Amino acid sequence: MTDNIVQLQTSTRGDYFGGCPTCRRTNGCVNDGPYHWFVCDTHKAKWNVGSNLFSSWREQTEEERFKNRDKLAKYREVEPVNDWNEGEVNSDNRPGQAPPF
Predict the structure, then answer these.
(1) Residue 38 β-bridge partners
(2) Residue range 22-80, pLDDT digits in tens
(3) Where are the domains of the chain?
(4) pLDDT at position 45
(5) CB 43 within 8 A of CB 20
(6) What separation in angstroms does the CA of 100 have from each of 18, 25, 84, 91?
(7) What per-residue confidence (pLDDT) applies to 10?
(8) In what order do the strands lie in the sheet containing 45-51?
(9) Chain-centre distance of CA 24, in angstroms?
(10) Structural contact between residues 83 and 21, judged by C-beta atoms closer than 8 angstroms
(11) Cβ-contact 37, 54 below 8 angstroms
C-alpha cells in the first residue's frame, strides 16, 4: 500500500545534528544499520552523528537497508556546520541575521 506514496525531496535547515558545510541544510537522517548519517542530497554530502541513537533502524527491512547503503556509498563524508544556537544564520540560511525566534 505504501508503494504509491511519493516522498518529496525537501531539505531543512541543519539543527542539533548539523548541516551541510556548503548550504547549511539537511535532507534528514539515513540509517546504515545502527549508524545514523545525516545527508545533503544537493551536495551529495553525509556526516555521521552516532549509532543506536534512534530506534527506527531496527524496524527497517532488508530492502531499505540495501537502498540506504547504496545511497550513502555515493555521498562524500564531510564535517557538518552547527551554528544553530549561535545566531549566525537566519531561517533562509543566509549569514548575518539571527534566527526569527
Answers:
(1) 29, 47
(2) 998 999 999 999 999 999 999 999 999 999 998 989 999 999 999 999 999 999 999 99
(3) 11-77
(4) 97
(5) yes
(6) 18, 17, 12, 7
(7) 66
(8) 29-32, 35-40, 45-51, 76-77
(9) 10
(10) no
(11) no
Q: How far apart are the two ends of the chain, measured CA to CA in Å?
A: 40
Q: Are 87 and 95 in contact (CB under 8 A)?
A: no
Cα Rg of the chain (Å, integer): 15
Distance CA 89, CA 101 (A): 12
Q: Residue 13 is placed in which grid cell?
A: 535547515
For 19, the grid coordinates are: 548541516
**Predicted confidence (pLDDT) per residue in 64-81, tens digit:** 999 999 999 999 999 999
- Strands 45-51 vs 76-77: parallel, antiparallel or unpaired: parallel
